[in-house]
Design goal:
By secondary structure, the chain is mainly beta. It contains 1 helix and 10 strands. A 5-stranded mixed sheet has the order 5-10-9-8-7, with no helix packed on it. A 3-stranded antiparallel sheet has the order 1-2-6, with no helix packed on it. Strands 3-4 form a two-stranded antiparallel ribbon. It starts with a strand and ends in a 9-residue tail after the last helix.
Length: 164
């Protein structure tokens, strides 16, 4: 949920809803585990994240990853005492459902982008499969292959192989 908190910060919350033996709703519980963190801490009954008013912070369940993604926050001016200075830094933390608990993951994405030979005007996408050369000229064959592959994936079909 979203909480407007105060004039300087907002908050987002995750809370687990269960039902007791009488079928009554129960909010919270020791469902957020930090046992796998570098410095483990006790389980939390709900998860809350406070950040600078107006910052866009992701806290969402992502079906493809089967986990809750949460933007990692840092202070925009090294003022770690005040949460209203916290903004996303581009990394994501997460929670994965394991054995009846949401287990915290410090860093969800661990890949590094190779900036060797990067063209800072055109950019260099991760990997070696470029659709354009350094002058911006399209490789029409590769572009068509990618298009066909994406369409085939959407339709559940096997993509065409142009190399044969």
């Amino acid at each position: 949920g979203f909480d407007n908190n105060n004039a300087m910060s907002s908050m987002k919350w995750i809370e687990v809803l269960t039902f007791n033996e009488k079928k009554e709703p129960v909010f919270g519980g020791p469902f957020f585990s930090y046992d796998k963190d570098t410095i483990p801490k006790p389980p939390q009954y709900r998860f809350g994240i406070e950040f600078k008013k107006g910052a866009r912070v992701l806290v969402n369940y992502i079906e493809d990853l089967q986990m809750i993604l949460v933007d990692h926050l840092i202070s925009e001016n090294d003022d770690t005492e005040h949460r209203w200075t916290y903004v996303p830094d581009g990394d994501q933390e997460g929670f994965k459902w394991e054995n009846g608990k949401w287990v915290h993951i410090d860093k969800v994405f661990t890949y590094k982008i190779d900036l060797k030979d990067a063209d800072f005007y055109l950019g260099k996408p991760p990997g070696d499969d470029k659709l354009m050369d350094s002058k911006g000229k399209k490789d029409e064959k590769k572009l068509q292959e990618k298009t066909d592959k994406n369409k085939a994936k959407e339709n559940g079909k096997v993509p065409i192989n142009y190399d044969n």
